[in-house]
Write a structure and sequence with these properties.
Chain lengths: ~180, ~290
């Protein structure tokens, strides 16, 4: 059963993102703050760190493609960036100690980087015209605060599910050839 | 990590980047049409999305109700003060309507740019990355939605349909940065209607720009702006907003007005698509043919 849990969580998070997107932008004291939910990519980074980078890349490609087609009509943007972030996460974690705190920090840093790359891309094709300072204040900061809250609440749950799947796969005969540790 | 850039991987990476650039440029060039696989994906994701957005709308509805309960006293005071005024206006409107109908009958004019067929729809998703102001609604081709139709809430115009699949459609909000986004509008409240084009959105002020107004026309703050119906696709008379400031445009030839949108673009839930009864023609509302500035 745990076998299907990871793609299922991914799918649920994929559908939850736009629902949370409906609440944004938030208006506070006359200023508008954009909160971009990035649940899926954070989950995929966890999968990449604790389970299997290659598998995370495939999930990233699949969900990225859905995202591209359904929301932004530019095919190749998210379907490239999601796997790319997973690869970076997988390679970074090989050289450092793997615990929940470090993984959380790594995830947040990568998410911020992801957000910044998207900002650069949309500025490049002229869909966004926003100075970097405004981007940092009204978009990146609130986005990262909201997403880190989400991660602090659910990070341990992600890890326990993924680790459970990892152990299950290691115990299953015939499939234990690859060792992600 | 020296083995990361082994020959095979390097070639794969390069191929990937080339494919990526090709795909992006291909899909950037032709964003108005959806191919069949895209339509299938869109409809499938849209169906899944509806399952999740239903409960979300319920929750926001509860919060909205609590919020309006808290404001009841203030609102009631305000509404009472407006009530007397309302009765007179209502009487006047009824009178004018019947007169209008009589006059129309007199001249034998049946079609009106104002008439439209409302299609009710629910917002199922908002583009989560919010770089483009787009929402997805749960009505598509099968319900009669066509590209470039006007989309509004009870308070006013919010955008127009850009992409249509069988069961869902994408709406680009009026607060977009897209330079090809135009709505032909007119200003009410003067001696005669003043025509202009809604072109662009000032993200700092969060206000729309009404451009190409004749420089000799005097405009005042607080005048209402509605769609003119002359753009070819939108019906006439959808509220857009009201003027907050009038300025001279960058070339000094025409005037430019800042318009505060009447509709609220946050927390969109139920929207109405206006299917105009008068046959549609190409015009400024359809972003492609409106470029001819002669």
């Amino acid at each position: 059963m745990i076998r299907y849990l990871i793609p299922l969580i991914g799918l649920v998070l994929f559908f939850l993102e736009p629902v949370f997107g409906l609440f944004s932008p938030l208006q506070m004291n006359g200023d508008y703050y954009y909160i971009v939910p990035r649940f899926l990519i954070m989950f995929l980074i966890f999968v990449s760190v604790y389970y299997d980078t290659k598998r995370a890349m495939y999930y990233g490609l699949f969900f990225g493609l859905l995202y591209d087609v359904f929301f932004i009509d530019i095919i190749g943007l998210y379907s490239f960036l999601y796997p790319a972030v997973c690869v970076i996460a997988g390679y970074t974690v090989k050289s450092i100690h793997r615990n929940l705190f470090i993984t959380t920090v790594l995830t947040l840093v990568l998410t911020a980087l992801f957000e910044f790359v998207l900002f650069q891309f949309f500025s490049l094709i002229g869909l966004a015209s926003m100075p970097v300072k405004a981007f940092l204040e009204t978009r990146l900061l609130p986005t990262m605060i909201a997403n880190s809250l989400f991660l602090f609440i659910l990070g341990w749950a992600f890890r326990s599910v993924i680790v459970a799947r990892f152990i299950e796969r290691q115990n299953s005969p015939g499939l234990s050839g690859y060792n992600g540790q | 990590m020296p083995q990361f850039f082994s020959n095979k991987r390097l070639i794969l990476l390069l191929l990937g980047v080339i494919l990526l650039v090709a795909l992006i440029s291909f899909s950037l060039r032709d964003r108005d049409n959806v191919s069949l696989p895209e339509q299938i994906i869109k409809d499938a994701v849209g169906a899944g999305q509806s399952v999740f957005s239903g409960p979300a709308h319920f929750v926001t509805g509860v919060f909205d109700n609590v919020d309006s309960l808290l404001n009841t006293y203030e609102e009631n005071k305000y509404l009472k003060s407006r009530l007397e005024e309302f009765a007179t206006v209502q009487a006047e409107v009824t009178d004018l309507r019947s007169e209008n109908a009589e006059l129309k009958e007199l001249v034998g004019k049946e079609e009106d740019l104002r008439d439209y067929n409302p299609i009710q729809a629910t917002v199922i998703a908002r583009n989560p990355d919010q770089w483009e102001e787009k929402i997805v609604i749960n009505k598509g081709e099968t319900s009669g939605v066509k590209p470039n139709m006007a989309v509004m809430t009870a308070r006013g115009l919010i955008g127009k349909v850009t992409l249509v699949t069988k069961l869902s459609s994408t709406v680009e909000l009026i607060s977009t940065q897209n330079p090809n986004y135009r709505v032909s509008a007119m200003v009410l409240g003067g001696d005669k209607a003043v025509f202009g084009l809604i072109e662009g959105y000032d993200a700092d002020r969060r206000e729309l720009l009404l451009k190409r107004i004749d420089a000799e026309i005097e405009l005042k703050e607080g005048q209402k702006v509605v769609s003119s119906g002359l753009g070819g696709i939108f019906p006439k008379g959808i509220v857009i907003g009201e003027i907050t400031e009038v300025a001279i445009d960058e070339f000094g030839l025409t005037k430019l007005a800042y318009i505060k949108p009447a509709a609220d673009f946050t927390l969109l839930n139920h929207v109405v698509i206006a299917d105009r009864l008068t046959p549609e023609v190409d015009g400024e509302d359809n972003g492609e043919t409106g470029d001819g500035e002669s």
